[in-house]
Amino acid sequence: MSDHAQSDLEDDLDWEEWDGKGSFLNHCVAGSIAGIAEHTLMYPFDTVKTHMQCSSCPGQPACPKSVPIQPPGIVQTFRSLATSKGGVSPLRMWRGVHTMFMGCVPAHALYFSSFEVGKKAFGADREGHHFMAAGAAGAISTFFHDSIMAPADTIKQRLQLGYYHGVRDCVKQMLKNEGPFSLYRSFPTTLAMNVPYGFIMVASNESLKKVINPTGEFNLFTSMVSGCGAGAVAASLTTPLDVVKTKLQTQNLGDIRTPPSGSAPTANAPHPNPIVHTPSSSAKNLKIQAAPLRPLHTSPPLFHPNAPPSPCPPTSSSPTYTNGYAAFRAILKEDGFIGLFKGMSPRLITHAPAVAISWTTYEGVKSLISEKGF
Q1: Rounded CA separation 260/324 (Å)
Q2: Comparing 103-107, 249-253, 317-321, which segment has the lowest mean pLDDT?
Q3: What is the DSSP string of 49-83?
Q4: Model confidence over 322-336: pLDDT tens digits?
Q5: Residue 257 bridge partners (DSSP)
Q6: Choices 1.50.40.10, 3.40.50.920, 3.40.190.10, 2.40.110.10: CATH for 22-254+304-372
Q7: CA 182/CA 158 separation, integer angstroms
Q8: Which is higher by pLDDT, 11 or 73?
Q9: Global pTM?
Q10: Can you list the alpha helix ranges (DSSP code H) found in 238-323?
């Protein structure tokens, strides 16, 4: 056997007989750190994007009475979210960020480790540009990533909009009122968006790095520039599917909750049965029902002033939109073609630097770990 063939065989055995040490573990650690850096630093812009995509509250019958339409622009939406009753409330921009800590650590560890395996298996690490091979590795790793992140993203978006008291309350109410499937209702649409996104982003990133830095050595500038370019291209092409995904994940929100008759809400009071205001409700009844509304907690609320005053999970397990196609048709009917591109600006602002931060952090940490001999 030639030395070259023997070297290739040894490399294959390193991956196939991974024993929990060495480079594979390095990829997991570096990927987890990259995920935390990406999602936490760009989270406020993701909050703005979610609110812009839900601004008209389509498909939520009770919502127009409780959630006024959000301002259309990035600056206006950001300003509206960051202030509360005339005061500054910057923490509002970070509501639900802890869901990312719980989801992105295992998701990104699996993403980057499977990417490295796929990259080697498909031959994307060879000299030259291998767009399809790199894209295939990105697509496969995206599937593993989203299998973990889909439920976390659903919870995150509902918290961003001002619903529920926290992650535990959100999960409890979703399971009770909508069933376990509600956590994965957008999963097919998420895959339909993120698999092409992952393919385009990874392929573009790998090619850009080879053009800007042919040596292949880690370089901060190269990683940032290629990451920004790849993130911008992939985000712009997949915005319509992101709007559909958001619509699926946040549908049926807006039902108003009131305390049981003869009781007042307290900090630890259980959630009463929700009441939906219908157009046939009399003005007198609306006034009586709305009078006792206030957040069911004593600490200063992080809810947006335009969001419902208390956690408001859906009243039925029957979703308005059961799949992405139904949501897609509703968007076209209610907002027209332009509705498919709601939140595109903050999405670009989020994903371009997010990809740069994520991949630069990943490559940097991986390089540092390798140099230290871990």
Answers
A1: 37
A2: 317-321
A3: HHHHHTTT-TT-TTHHHHSPPPPSSHHHHHHHHHE
A4: 888 899 999 999 889
A5: 274
A6: 1.50.40.10
A7: 12
A8: 73
A9: 0.66
A10: 239-250, 283-290
